[in-house]
Request: fold
Amino acid sequence: MLSKRIIPCLDVREGCTTKGIKFKQNVDIGDPVEMGRYYYEEGADEIVFYDITASNEKRDIMIDVVSRVAGDIFIPFSVGGGIRTLDDMRRVLLAGAEKVSVNSAAIRDPEIISKGARAFGSQCIVLGMDVKKVTPSDAVPSGYEMVINGGRTYTGIDALKWAQKGEALGAGEICLNSIDADGTLDGYELTLTALISENVNIPVIASGGAGNIDHIYQVLTRGRADAALVASIIHYGTCTIREIKEDLHARGVKVRMSW
Amino acid sequence: MIAIVDYRAGNLRSVERALRKIGFDCCITSDGEEILGAERVVFPGVGAAGRAMANLKEQGLDRVLRQVFENGRPFLGICIGAQIILERSEEDNASCLALVPGEVRAFSSSLVSGDHGHLKIPHMGWNGLERVKEHPVLRGIEPMDEFYFVHSYYPVPASESHVIAYAGYGIRFPSIIGTRNLIAMQFHLEKSGAPGLRILKNFCQWDGKTC
Reply:
């Protein structure tokens, strides 16, 4: 059987990570390549680099980061943020990323999913979903709505319908981020995660809310997620990837324990 | 020199980067002479079997790869490269290289597992191996080691004697195939961390003999 994946997420702005790792010696490391290598050696199953560079002119810096990561880290990694066109995808994949994730660009133009899947294969295309809980309505029967612009703009699109549409268009995986849970450290949105995971036939990575190891356990079991994205919990030293995996393993969750 | 066969299918650079990292010289090439002259040959890839076979034939590389196999040079297939060495594939109903008797089958969309319910296709992520035979390229690989898979089809050699290892995903399927100088893996060893690099290094030091 497949192991459940633990995936560190690094936010990168103009070539630097925005949250450095607080090592025991209290040294912050802001280089995404160094941080990526650190998590690779710590047992990460995959790494997500999320480019939050504001200006388009500085996006080439990310391509350089991607190619340096690719020469050093021999597990899959994906790149998201600012991917708007087929050409953006091509540049990131050629630089050495395994996968690209599209988020708001897919809301604006869903065809980018099918075009990307046709050009590079479904396994390369991750559909990033930012979701907020709302009162169920005719347009949003699941009670979960797709949002963009960091949660500020509601799209009127039902999250479950969007996930299924994304799968039909050729997305190979879903990275499901609960805007409500994100940054709270109160745990993942289990109801949302289980709803999406049980109703699509592609893997779902849960994102947003991890504050302790039990949260990760819950989302991989009750939430039925295939993988858990982790950020603050490891960047700020609450626990290490090894500790997360040892705990999950002890509680009967299949994770990769040898690296 | 190690030749990485370029048949215009998928990104070959990751194999090249992994070989460089462990200190072996390699080139990505579609030149038949260069491939036949290489000390060893890597046949990587992602993509669909039909497209891959069409590209190989168009470039005359199907004959070159058969010759590499005949010549006894160490020959490594990865992912789609572990599939089109068989006779035919259910994917695109493609006729393949037929270096090893057998066929490539699709995972059934109704795979289930007791604890996990309905299994998602493709089989994507980290999985372990059940080794049924020793092989020089698996030296130093521990039972706990896992490897990164991404595939919807799996190779089934006609003879179990060609299976070096299985993996499990609702069913038990061959994940490493070997015969003579050919060794082929369904998973991406170039994306499988240290154990993957270990296999790659073993391959680079292998003389192409199984005992």
